[in-house]
Design goal:
The complex is a heterodimer. Chain A has 17 helices and 10 strands. By secondary structure, chain A is α+β, with helices and mostly antiparallel strands. By secondary structure, chain B is α+β, with helices and mostly antiparallel strands. The longest helix of chain B has 20 residues. Classes of the chains: A alpha+beta, B alpha+beta.
Chain lengths: ~450, ~130
């Protein structure tokens, strides 16, 4: 049966568990409610609404035959029951978390909607991706600098930067991914925002989400750490280990981010949610609010993974970067605790074990850069050899690990381990700029 | 670091590998065991370890055929630490000159061998 969704005004005193609140009688930002639209799952939430509102709007479904029903059809029956019966039902419901109801624009509805293919080869897209990367990074840097001197986030520029990112990733998903491998620790925060934007849009493409959603995710990702602009420089760029107090200040960037974005009426609610919730964990041990699985917005769950992946693989002022494989191991092991299980597994599939740009050491001691993956044998990509077995610079040549399988057994080599960018003096940025990796 | 230690990849800890309990003085921290080999283990934790460069670790592992191997109070060097807002990662190298290692080396080798032979790695997930 087809249904239409309508908002119905209702006194807060008549709210019940299972109803979906779409609007309040005042702006959301005047309340403590994190999610702009939520399913009532506990009496505590009704009590909290009683404290701040007289009436709210709830979602009601209207079938095309003209009849109306609440979001949960059983609710109409409840209305006809006596008070004792309703109270009994409410008390029973108190210990049950109803299944999550989705709004029509819930991002999870868009999973697997689109199947993408690369429109152009990577070498053709690379120059465009490079320009796009520079512009978006400049935008991220300018947002952070602007906030420090009291300017508002210019959403028009953010949209333009993210539009370019989305277009490039739709053209070829690997070109911008390559550039996220190049890490400059001098401008970590802006570069991290940029990388998380690229990783998130690429991941959303992998999940089959439509272009409109890629744009939303890209904006939310680019702005996810905007609150760090409010963290004092001496903490943000501290070269050593944070004290416990400094770590607590760092954690405040989520609340700062929410407040900054809320003050700008042109920013969508999804970006505000992500800025506030990207450090929440599925097991409820995250911050700032300790939300649990169903309370965390979908985009925040997604960006929590890309944020962690980029942070682990980046070289910060006070830490050493880890290899991609190490980051994926951590994400895998923390699935269902820190990260949404299904999203974590999909992210690992999206990135792959040795993505292009990985620096790998072979079992014969030589070291190279992965330049192309092999779809049949994911552990045997094409590698550009740049260091000999003694780890000295050598004449660069492409070594195809898949073709190597046809050699005599004693000549077959494998990937022994992956290294972070910079190991043995291998600089991906220099390789790309010299056209040694991507240009034919 | 010897050549074998350098090139031997750490193996993803399967679900039958317990969390690691890290002890520094009187402080004990429970950490997720991420990957492991006979020379060391990578762990991940919500809370940060103390800044000292040594710790003791204990964990257990249930082999493919159901045998429980318990490793206790193994002295480690903290070889790397990456403390981020998203979580804290540490690389622990077992101190192989210490008696705690010498006494438990057989157990460590047995765990490594069992994971290598029986447990899925991320590569398997993708294939």
């Amino acid at each position: 049966m087809s249904v239409e969704l309508n908002d119905v005004k209702i006194s807060v005193g008549h709210l019940e568990i299972g109803m979906y609140v779409t609007r309040l009688d005042r702006p959301w930002e005047e309340t403590d409610f994190l999610l702009q639209g939520f399913l009532i799952t506990t009496q505590t939430e009704i009590d909290a609404l009683l404290d701040v509102c007289k009436y709210v709007y709830i979602e009601e479904r209207r079938s095309l035959d003209g009849s109306y029903q609440r979001a949960d059809s059983s609710d109409r029956r409840v209305e006809n029951e006596g008070l004792a019966a309703r109270l009994k039902k409410k008390l029973t419901n108190k210990h049950v978390t109803p299944p999550k109801k989705r709004q029509k624009d819930d991002p999870e509805n868009f999973l697997n909607n689109v199947s993408y293919i690369n429109k152009v080869p990577i070498e053709q897209e690379f120059e465009n991706a490079n320009q796009c990367f520079k512009f978006a990074k400049l935008t991220a840097q300018s947002i952070m600098d602007g906030i420090r001197i009291g300017r508002l986030v210019e959403i028009k520029t953010v949209r333009e930067a993210v539009d370019n990112v989305v277009k490039s990733i739709l053209n070829n998903r690997n070109a911008l991914m390559w550039l996220t491998k190049i890490k400059n620790k001098d401008d970590y925060t802006a570069e991290h925002c940029m990388n998380v934007c690229i990783l998130s849009v690429t991941f959303a493409r992998h999940l089959g989400m439509p272009e409109s959603q890629l744009q939303k995710i890209g904006i939310a990702a680019l702005l996810h750490d905007v609150g760090k602009a409010k963290i004092p420089d001496e903490i943000l760029n501290k070269p050593g280990r944070f004290t416990d107090d400094e770590m607590e200040v760092m954690k405040m960037h989520t609340t700062f981010g929410r407040d900054l974005l809320l003050s700008n009426t042109t920013i969508g609610s999804s970006a505000i949610d992500v800025a506030y919730c990207h450090h929440e964990r599925i097991d409820g041990l995250g911050y700032p609010r300790g939300l649990i699985e169903h309370q965390i917005p979908f985009y925040s769950k997604l960006i929590a993974i890309t944020d962690t992946y980029d942070a682990i693989t980046s070289s910060r002022v006070y830490d050493n970067a880890r290899a991609s494989k190490e980051a994926l191991d951590i994400i895998y092991k923390d699935r269902g605790r820190q990260f949404d299980e299904n999203l974590a597994l999909e992210f690992i599939k999206c990135i792959g074990i040795y993505p292009p740009g990985s620096i790998v050491e072979l079992t014969d001691g030589r070291v190279g850069v992965v330049i192309a993956t092999n779809t049949e044998q994911k552990l045997r990509p094409k590698v550009l050899i740049v260091r000999d077995a003694e780890k000295q610079p050598c004449k660069q040549k492409i070594f195809d690990l898949f073709k190597n399988l046809s050699e005599e057994p004693e000549k077959i080599v494998h990937i022994a381990q992956e290294h972070p960018n910079g190991r043995y003096g291998i600089d991906l940025k220099a390789l790309i700029e010299r056209g040694l990796v991507l240009k034919k | 670091m010897n050549e074998d230690q350098r090139i031997r990849p750490r193996l993803l800890c399967p679900d039958t590998f317990s969390d690691s309990e890290v002890t520094q003085g009187k402080l004990m921290t429970s950490c997720v065991s991420v990957n492991f080999h006979r020379y060391g283990i990578a762990i991940n934790s919500i809370s940060r370890l103390e800044s000292s460069s040594h710790c003791h670790v204990q964990f257990s592992y249930s082999t493919f055929d159901g045998k429980l191997i318990e490793v206790e109070s193994l002295l480690c060097d903290i070889k790397y630490r990456q403390e981020l807002e998203t979580g804290n990662q540490y690389g622990l190298a077992f101190v192989n000159a210490d008696q705690s290692y010498i006494n438990q080396q057989t157990k460590l080798l047995a765990i490594e061998l069992d994971i290598e032979q029986n447990s899925e790695q991320l590569e398997d997930l993708l294939s």
